[in-house]
Amino acid sequence: MSVIASQKDFDFIIDTLDWLRSSTGTVIDVGGGGGLISEGPALRLPGLHFVVQDSENVLQQADVHPDVKHRISFMTHNFFDEQPVKHAEVYYFRNIFHDWPDEQCIIILRNLIPALKPGAHVIIDNFGLQEPLTLPAYQERVQREIEHARLEDQASGLAEMMDNRVMHAPIVTPLQIIDVGCGTGIVTRHLGNAYPSARVYGIDLSPVPIPAGPHPPNVEYILGDVRTLTNPRLAPGSTDFIFSRLLTLGMTDWAGYVRDMVSLLRPGGWVEMQDYSLDWYMHGSNCSEEWEWLKALFLAAQQKGWDLRAGRNIPLYMQEAGLLDISVVTYRVPIGTWLERLESKRIGEHAAREYGRLYYHAIPKMLQGMGYTKEKIEEFQRSSSVDLAGQEGKELKFYATIGRKP
Fold this sequence. Notes:
- This protein is of the alpha/beta class.
- The chain is about 35% helix and about 25% strand.
- The chain contains 13 helices and 13 strands.
- Strand 4 (about 90-95), helix 5 (about 100-110) and strand 5 (about 120-125) form a beta-alpha-beta unit.
- The longest helix has 22 residues, at about 345-365.
């Protein structure tokens, strides 16, 4: 067994492992998505055939370079099941194991053993994450590059779903804008470019990565909790527009949060909040009462102060906080690409690929202290992975809600 440390791609592996360049046989790209990762080495390694394995929904979008189509095939496979392709030369995993706890990673690897022939190679190509704020900022940005790319893919998918609009509030010439929970800063930068005369502050609990290339000069990032920051730039009545998105799993006091944001607004200022309601639908019928793990999450949320239906309930919080002209736009988010609306394709792909993983990791944390055994938690995790797989007719709702301060 050997270890190579690199921030590069498969080309680096080819250049480092001499035996790979002269190999013949089959490479299994486990969890290989649409085949993009296999495409590059297939062009460089004419002696190898590549089998890309992933979920049925992901493989529906598969497309590779015409010159290598005859040497790349696709197979539906769940890596928690036994590996069906026996005696391949290489079994390749790229950025798979960081998504799963150790015991699940062991299961994935054990499922390979019956397929391995003497001399077969298992290549694990995975980045490693450090805890936040334990590295210099520039190193942390490198470490978290892939996670940031996922967040930006989600943001881009949501924008496409909303007909390439990021916001719905009718602001014209704002002097100050706040983006709460700004994440990678993709929306903050958009607001800075859209309103170059405004001061735009992105606020997040984690450091915001600064991308290469031009950066709006009117954008500034603030590290901290917007509700507890003591910053003269965030004085009451100082802001024309406040934007926030996807705070459902991190907010324990929605009513108080909305009141605090209203206090920051100038008279006539707007707030926009975009979020999911975590009810899932199958062909229009609500699945929330059918999925035991989801019922457990709603029960835990009720006891711990989360509102998992925040997207749907935000208009009520805005009304209680005294906002006027409240309006809501509701969007359907398909889990997969089955919805006959091109604008929803990207977010549907993202949802099918990521949401199962998100809940798998969230369940133990959300149910902590609720009295469930370790075995029951693991059962909930397995069930959530099955229930949230991409499937025709499966969807949830995303709400964009705006309100104006009198």
